[in-house]
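Hi X.,

You mentioned you wanted examples for the new student's onboarding notes, showing what a folding record looks like when two proteins sit in one file. Here is a clean example. The first protein comes first, with its sequence line followed by its structure tokens.
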Amino acid sequence: MRAVVQRVSEASVAVGDDVVGAIGRGAAVLLGVASNDTGDDADRLAGKVARLRIFENEDGRLDGSLVDVDGEVLVISQFTLIADTRKGNRPSFTDAARPEQAEPLVDAFAAALRGSGIRVETGEFGAYMQVELVNDGPVTIVLDL
């Protein structure tokens, strides 16, 4: 499982002309699920995202988490994060989970974040989406399990 976590001042996701998820201050999380990922991985990664200290304290140090600052999260499923680009120029997605495995794990990740008291919005699994965000800082962290 791989997450690209971007600290944002706002973010939204649309499918066609309809905005299906929007947040204010918090994090946009692009989430890739690999074929060997489990529900335990989703819980563990959600816990790490919830406690990841990416918000500045009064001294300017990155010391606050989403839980600490009452931040929100926009979760976007993105199988392309699992691309293997070691050979050639065409990405291989053979390690990405099939949709029937990935969708419940994306849902479990979002549910685990909600269980930490975080407001979570999501994109639409499997849909062609347009994501807009204002990366605050910029701060972008890649988490791999």
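Then the second protein repeats the pattern, sequence line and then tokens:
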Amino acid sequence: MSSARSDRLAVALETTPKKTFASALDWPGWSRSGKTPELAIEALLAYAPRFAPVVGAAGLMLSPSFDVDVIDRVEGGSGTTFGVPSYLTHLADARPVNRAEAARLALIVEAAWAYFDGVAAKAPAELRKGPRGGGRDRAKIVGHVNESDWYYAREIGLRGKQPDPHDPAAIRAQREAMLDVLRQPSDGSPLANRRWPMRYAARRIAWHALDHAWEIEDRSEKE
């Protein structure tokens, strides 16, 4: 009997002595961390069932299994150690993006935002605290994600007044402007002559929304 088909999963690692981030380069938002590269990859694969609904909402589908192919490694920074991907790009991020691939990346980013909004809407106002009593409550996480998106918008060449992070119409307008940028084909160079190539921008924006969506989910659960 033949074995089930596995798809290749191109992964890049961002490492420090204390923590590693593993990112699925062709799937914006699918990035997880661990104390070692091996544990980071293990965490990435463990989150496939949580990432799959996001992909499904974008009209796409994840393979039921993957063969991991680590194609790039970079040295992380203080942000990596703290627990967030640093502003580091990989060689694969410089690949050109045609119109069809740009549309695909934008769909995943849009689905990540929608998933975050849905999770936040159902969550209690007060979230369970961490083991040391820390952690933002729902409104502050929502504000933080929306405020961060304004900085991300600037990185991809958009200018304008920072919207009220709790104004749904203003947030929708900002997101649509960002998606308009992400839908355009790219030669792989940094957007707006700044730092972020198209592929990195999509990955960073989607990761931030999903990381906080999953945080809200986890901290909404009763002990």
